[in-house]
């Protein structure tokens, strides 16, 4: 034992002294300081490059070959997704989850209490049995399902529940993204991660306005009770005969229920060191469609977060003519608009609608049932193993999203559209 250790201790000084000797010899033979420095650098580069392989640094050769140079590893963000569904949504949710998958992200999936136990068990076993999910351990299912009422505050509490789980599961994500089983991405994760890597991590994408319009009488003034808070069977919200006035202690905002929230804002909501998120949560307990108001009202009434609000929900949605209450179901007729859209997500879709196959083939280059191929994929068949997850292979989607960000974040109008 002893002699080996002694020998090892000698290896490094030996290499150093030989290099110094080579250096001295080279300079003394007047080969030129520059070229000998290069020699020494190239010799030394053996060591850092070996270390960097262990630390999974970006592959340097790649950055010279690929046109858009990948962001430095530490710059690649991570997303925390909530994908939720209800009765009969298992197949839709599973497809959306697989299309969204990237080893760097975190995922929480939830099928609410209205779905059958069999459906939930099936989802749990699929998550458990998937070799990649099992290996990376970044897909979590809420097994104790919540009762969720459409338009009710239980929807908000479900979203906050998922946020809390994600905060606990990983210290390592930058944005929370709320999706449903009827949503579908229009870009690969490599595209979205790439486009987000140059963004300020404090930005929140949340479409909002303080102009309530018809919502003032139909949403803000009525009082509702959500039976999902105390009944174990599903029933719709009901209205109380009393109405209330608009609040004067804070300004109401309303907007899209789809959002991309920064980690800092999610921590503020969940940990509640300021009382505003908590008291607004109680106010919204009796509000019609609270998911379309709670987050918006909190962010715009918190001075430290108001300036991080980007007025967009990053979704392609087509609405009925005002009152904009029901989004249209997208079909092949919307295909051209979807392909032209710069939005990373779209909704809503029917289960296995042909337009999804169209998106798969034209935008995501995905084969049925498989993951979307990205820089992380290795093995045969592709994506059967996880290679280097920090290697991104952005495509046209990244350019489209950068264009959208240019319009939203880097535009002089950014501040003008904020919390108005
Ligand atoms: C998951 O694995 C278990 C045990 O290997 C097996 O019994 C079960 O059928 C598998 N489920 C699915 C959905 O593949
Ligand atoms: C989150 O996603 C669900 C889809 O399941 C949606 O209905 C809800 O309104 C979204 N937003 C919030 C804030 O919960
Ligand atoms: C990101 O945005 C926040 C809030 O606007 C600002 O305080 C911070 O300096 C920005 N960070 C960087 C790195 O630009
Ligand atoms: C597409 O549009 C055409 C003409 O407007 C209509 O007849 C057809 O039903 C639509 N198809 C779908 C799938 O919505």
Automatic annotation (TrEMBL):
Pfam families: Branch. InterPro entries: GLCAT14A/B/C (IPR044610), Glyco_trans_14 (IPR003406). The keyword Transcription regulation does not apply. It is a single-pass type II membrane protein. The chain crosses the membrane at residues 12-33. It is found in: Membrane. This is Uncharacterized protein. One of its GO terms (molecular function) is glucuronosyltransferase activity. It comes from the Eukaryota. Keywords: Glycoprotein, Glycosyltransferase, Membrane, Transferase, Transmembrane, Transmembrane helix. GO terms for cellular component: membrane. It comes from Protea cynaroides.
